[in-house]
Amino acid sequence: MPVSKTNRAQENMPYLEHYKELLDKEMQEKYQWEAMKLWTHNNFDKLSLDISKKTNKNVSESTLKRAFGKLETAIFPSDATLNALALFLGYADWEAFRQFVDTKEIAVEEEKVEESLPKKNHWWRSYQKQAGVVIACLCAVFAFFAFLRPVVPVPKPSGKLFLKYAKEPQKTMPYTLVLGYKLENVDLNKDTCTISYYTFKRQDEVLVHHEGEKSFYITNPEVYQYYLRMGNRIVDSLTVSLRTEGWFLLTRKSDDMSHHPDTEDIDSLFFKNGTLHYPHPLPRHYFTWTSFLNAGHISDVNIDEMTLEAEIKNDMLNGGIPEYDVKIMLDGEYGDKLQVNFTKLGQEYFSYISFGYTLIRGYEVGRGSLATDLSKWRKVKILTKNRFLTIYLDGEKIAETSYRMNFGRLWGIGFTFRGSGMARNISLRRSDESIAYQLHSQK
Fold this sequence. Notes:
Jelly Rolls, eight-stranded antiparallel sheet, Immunoglobulin-like, 7 helices, alpha+beta, 25% helix
């Protein structure tokens, strides 16, 4: 009789928990990742690629998030997914992994049972008792003299991270942020200490002195989280929010963080007659320009109670790709982002809405796919009320969904394009319909 899906899920759940522990340890040792509970979208994306390379099996980042509890779901991973996961850690399939777990647990249980069984009377039993008495007396004598000696505590390694230099708000970007640090009771010849932060990938600044400072090149105004590490242990952390005055124009980001923004005289060409322009051709693997709206003018707006309207266009003349056709980002005061990604027609799978770590594909909300003809100007309206999101395109409701996150105050609005994108007629209204910001194109 075939096993029902419910029974199958209940049967496999303990094994999946074992798997998560092994995978968590594997990724921390291999990539020096954070614990799984701190993984971001980039971690799951990287893991998805690694699984594909090693096993020739495709497991999407959203499937991984659901399997490991980052996305709420009532669906247990399929047999194909479980087999791919097992293969990634070196097991023939999921059943082989289960046998490994069972064998390990049986060995532990047998050891416990053996310890609990009554001991047989051997000839050396009396000798064992006498030896125990002697050992107990020696321990008592040792404890007595140890009590008389002063206890000298062994100092534990520690460290502090603090802000040394940052203007608030910044007038221009890129920007150099300076953090100070102080280490105590650390042997830098043996222990590796770093300051780490996360952008498109983890960046590490190795510390070679017990006290000093480190500079960080910042290309994007947002909330940054820095960590002071000793080996794999986080000993201190620091949150730094960086904002700009007016529009922050045209920061080019790349996947490997190797490409720096162009000079100001070139940047000034891209804001003209009330319209943001992104006309430069870029290699396909680059993120294109990002423009952020001044957080200082809009910080009294709550992301969960507001209306954003804008016209967007991306004619793809310079080789844009569907995953990042047009993305609108709303940065919250706690560092989380509400993001809506539009795509061209025929690429519906790459449209999505993300609430922090939670990602929903466009076709999963309402009847909308967030895909449209982006070679023409399109009017977008993003409305939030009581943590319910509604999206309109050219006046027609195309997607709606509830969410649980609390984004708090709005710290910035960003537009990201791949291709030759533009944005105009941008307006932001509070929950009472009062205007927080307006930018109208000049005909």
